[in-house]
């Protein structure tokens, strides 16, 4: 197929491949190529044209060009400006490049010309190839549409397969890579296969392109049509004087662009805006959609505030705003410390539990100020509809988001401090269980994707610092309680109340009632009398009311009587507040038979109970009066059983209990009483009445009794000890198992009290009976 080697001047073409039979001109600017043309013109005008593999290479070697090139005959050379030669060349045959010679100032190729041999294929095969190629070319021309009909007709009339392949390859627009593939096909069969593959591929690409173009055109046409219709609709609505939804939708889109939210949220809002644009203004759905979009756009999806990490400032704020409350302050400082170390820290869910008026709600405000968080409050007292928490489905008339979502709207950030006030006062009915709806809100594992029925998009509540308040832990459902960290705020001591009044309540009430500093003085003795005789509470709410009454009377005296200064003392306090409201049941002056002093816990603090027992002839009945609850009645019965079991040791005859009735009474009969902690008190009073030995008047006791005379631990010890202190009790008997509780109490509470730990009734009786 090849002849012996020949040597010809060579040109490396960039981005161009010339086939045999092609007459084409190209520009030459490289100096070596110009010299190759000059050398060719001086001899037989033949030149070897080979294509570079990489068009960017300036001086390629043998490895930088294709192996098969074309022998060309230079028909014309024209000099152009800027030292450029335009060369007209006709391709005469193929040649294989063996090497480049480096002895000349231009490329010289050592080539092996390819001799075109006659086809040895059967006539049927040749005919099949001929027809197939004509059909492919015809289809190609139909798809292309840019080849002239005369040229198509001329090519289709060619009767030789070899000439047909050559003319098609020369006349259709192909990339230089495809032309190189045809050039490298050295046999007729190979050239047919390469050209057929190229034509088939080009036809497929053009069909796909045409289909894509149709789709693009259809879409453009549709958009133009919609634009025209919208403009017409806009004009009609303006003529009718209707609200223009398009303008509102554009406003929504502007807000959406400014919204800081996830792609999921933005995509949902965008769809709702499109729906809003297409609804009629008079349709009720339009107003529903409008309200829904406004809600979504007003939520703080990814908008957050920076928390303060200044521990010193936070501590100063908590100390300034609240007296005492050591546990709460320490927990908040722990949270801040963790946040500062980790730069994130999971927000805790705290539940402040304590009697009314102890400052639970105001603590939450102070915490928000200390952390520089936005503060929002949700009052849950009496809420019994689950939709109040989760929101209503927006398909309902009057649907609205739940309180959690509304609180986030108010805060404007996704990490506020959210106060859930009175969480123990939620209730349930046929509309659902509110406390169950709160489970998802208060579960740190779930609330990162809280679903409000109205919003229908997951909201991240994991950054929210929840603080709940409650008066009674027993009223909070167990699953809900399990998700919260309890911090108990018990009642204040007399000294704490005095500090709170001086530092917070008196200045606050003076400011609210327009009294300047120096115009009113409340002496410490008067303040103590207000605390002990005019209020009976664990908190300071009534104390603040009493101080408010004094301030109002002072304001009247200043205005009507022209007084410059008012001083409130223990003696003239009744002039401001009237007669005393409460008197603590003080310790009895002398020891009495059948009377023992117990200690009780109430929602407004501690109190003392005087238990009285009388024994009289009868049928052995036990009478219990004073509105006692079931647990307290059972404690009395357990006490009787224990006394009967040890009666012989106190020289009590067995028939005594069949011949006498025992009456146990706890005064203030209108007040309900319950609980096991009066067990040892009742047993002591009953035994005292039976054996006629008095009980110490300066002693009080608390503890649960068992049938075998063991003393079990009780709760509410701080409040009970405070009540004993107010009543001037000197010694208190406390269950031995409550020793750790006593050790946690401040000295202020235990000072002046002798606390004796007891574990059995024998110890109680030894200390109590005279």
From TrEMBL:
Give the record's family classification: Belongs to the peptidase S16 family.
Q: What is its EC number?
A: 3.4.21.53
**Keywords, sorted A to Z:** ATP-binding, Cytoplasm, Hydrolase, Nucleotide-binding, Protease, Serine protease, Stress response
What's a Gene Ontology MF term here?
serine-type endopeptidase activity
Which species? Answer: Blautia wexlerae
Specify where it is mainly localized. cytoplasm
Gene behind this protein? lon
| Binding site residues for ATP | 354-361
What is the name of this protein?
Lon protease
* Catalytic reaction list: Hydrolysis of proteins in presence of ATP
């Amino acid at each position: 197929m090849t002849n012996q080697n020949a040597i010809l001047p060579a040109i490396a073409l960039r981005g161009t491949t010339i086939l045999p039979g092609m007459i084409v001109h190209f520009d030459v600017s490289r100096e070596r190529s110009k010299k190759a043309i000059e050398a060719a013109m001086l001899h037989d005008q033949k030149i070897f044209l080979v294509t570079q593999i990489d068009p960017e290479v300036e001086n390629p070697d043998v490895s930088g060009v294709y192996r098969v090139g074309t022998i060309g005959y230079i028909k014309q050379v024209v000099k152009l400006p800027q030292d450029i030669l335009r060369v007209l060349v006709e391709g005469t045959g193929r040649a294989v490049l063996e090497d480049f010679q480096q002895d000349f100032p231009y490329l010289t190729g050592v080539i092996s010309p390819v001799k075109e041999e006659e086809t040895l294929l059967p006539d049927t095969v040749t005919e099949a190839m001929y027809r197939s190629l004509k059909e492919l070319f015809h289809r190609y021309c139909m798809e292309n549409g840019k080849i002239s009909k005369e040229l198509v007709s001329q090519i289709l009339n060619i009767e030789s397969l070899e000439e047909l392949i050559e003319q098609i390859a020369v006349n259709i627009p192909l990339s230089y890579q495809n032309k190189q593939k045809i050039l490298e096909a050295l046999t007729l069969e190979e050239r047919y296969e390469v050209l057929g593959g190229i034509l088939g591929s080009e036809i497929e690409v053009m069909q796909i392109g045409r289909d894509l173009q149709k789709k693009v055109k259809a879409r453009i046409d549709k958009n133009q049509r919609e634009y025209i219709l919208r403009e017409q609709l806009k004009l009609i609505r303006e003529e009718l004087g209707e609200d223009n939804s398009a303008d509102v939708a554009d406003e929504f889109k502007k807000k959406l662009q400014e919204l800081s939210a996830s792609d999921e949220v933005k995509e949902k809002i965008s769809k709702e805006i499109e729906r809003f644009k297409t609804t009629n203004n008079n349709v009720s759905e339009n107003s529903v959609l409008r309200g829904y979009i406004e809600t979504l756009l007003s939520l703080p999806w990814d908008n957050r505030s920076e928390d303060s990490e200044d521990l010193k400032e936070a501590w100063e704020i908590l100390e300034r705003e609240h007296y005492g409350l050591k546990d709460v302050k320490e927990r908040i400082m722990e949270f801040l410390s963790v946040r500062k170390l980790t730069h994130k820290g999971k927000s805790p869910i705290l539940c402040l539990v304590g009697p009314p008026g102890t400052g639970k709600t105001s603590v939450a405000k102070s915490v928000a100020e200390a952390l520089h968080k936005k503060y929002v409050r949700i009052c849950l007292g009496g809420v019994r509809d689950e939709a109040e928490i989760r929101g209503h489905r927006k398909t309902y008339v009057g649907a609205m988001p739940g309180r959690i979502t509304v609180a986030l709207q108010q805060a404007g950030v996704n990490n506020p401090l959210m106060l859930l006030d009175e969480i123990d006062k939620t209730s349930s009915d046929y509309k659902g269980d509110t406390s169950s709806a709160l489970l998802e809100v208060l579960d740190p594992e779930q609330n990162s994707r809280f679903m409000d029925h109205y919003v229908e998009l997951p909201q991240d509540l994991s950054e929210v610092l929840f603080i709940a308040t409650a008066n009674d832990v027993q009223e909070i459902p167990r699953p809900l309680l399990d998700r919260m960290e309890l911090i108990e705020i018990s009642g204040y001591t007399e000294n704490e109340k005095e500090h709170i009044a001086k530092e917070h309540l008196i200045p606050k009430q003076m400011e609210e009632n327009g009294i300047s500093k120096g115009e009113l003085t409340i002496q410490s003795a008067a303040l103590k009398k207000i605390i002990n005789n005019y209020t009976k509470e664990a908190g300071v709410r009534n104390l603040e009311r009493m101080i408010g009454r004094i301030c109002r009377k002072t304001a009247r005296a200043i205005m009507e009587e022209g007084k410059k200064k008012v001083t409130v003392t223990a003696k003239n306090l009744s002039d401001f507040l009237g007669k005393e409201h409460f008197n603590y049941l003080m310790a009895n002056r002398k020891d009495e038979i059948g009377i023992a002093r117990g200690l009780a816990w109430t929602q407004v603090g501690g109190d003392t109970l005087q238990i009285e027992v009388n024994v009289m002839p009868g049928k052995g009945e036990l009478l219990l009066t004073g509105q006692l609850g079931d647990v307290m009645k059972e404690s009395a019965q357990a006490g009787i059983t224990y006394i009967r079991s040890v009666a012989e040791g106190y020289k009590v005859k067995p028939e005594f209990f069949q011949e006498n009735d025992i009456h146990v009474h706890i005064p203030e009969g209108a007040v309900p009483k319950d609980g096991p902690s009066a067990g040892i008190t009742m047993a002591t009073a009953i035994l005292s009445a039976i054996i006629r030995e008095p009980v110490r008047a300066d002693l009080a006791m608390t503890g649960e009794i068992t049938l075998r005379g063991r003393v079990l631990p009780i709760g509410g010890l701080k409040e009970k000890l405070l009540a004993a202190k107010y009543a001037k009790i000197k010694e208190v008997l406390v269950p031995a198992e409550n020793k750790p509780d006593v050790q946690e109490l401040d000295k202020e509470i235990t000072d002046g009290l002798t606390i004796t730990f007891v574990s059995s009734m024998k110890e109680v009786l030894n200390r109590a009976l005279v």
